[in-house]
Design brief:
By secondary structure, the chain is mostly helical. Helices cover 61% and strands 3% of the residues. The longest helix has 21 residues, at 49-69.
Amino acid sequence: MVSDFRKKKLLHVFTSFFDRNASGSIDKKDFELAIENITKLRGWAAGDAKYKEVQSTLLKIWDGLQGRADANKDGEVSTDEWIAMWDEYAKNPSAPLEWQSLYAKFIFQLEDASGDGAIDGEEFSSVYASFGLNKDEALAAFRNMSKGKANVSWAEFQELWKEYFTTEDPKAPGNFIFGKSSF
């Protein structure tokens, strides 16, 4: 059984980053909208190699998500299916599905705009602002997530990622990985 606290976190990711057209479920159209948003944020045009890389990665993530979470095979992932899938993940977070690992790496690389192997507060908050979150709140979330440090490395990010999807502790640094400062 997923607690109300964890449900709030899971639904934040569902509504803010996956259900881009606010239809109440996730489908391939949401991923197409995310591709447009992300490539526009970075200034990559449709023919660019980076555009194609984002497109390829996000469509692989969609295929993996749909294959695992779309229990009734209707071409959409409902909130119940989403929560059930992440509840399964929480039982063994050291053995993520391939698409979950791909998504974690994708988010880290998206946030690491400078490509220096670490995320800083400005990089972090700019990405979340592009998804419609409040930039100041995202900066506050970054400070909590980084425990006051100037940046977060890939190794730290991976641990924070696991924590987000598994912890019941409202003060755990991983809770802030998706730009929200409270649940």
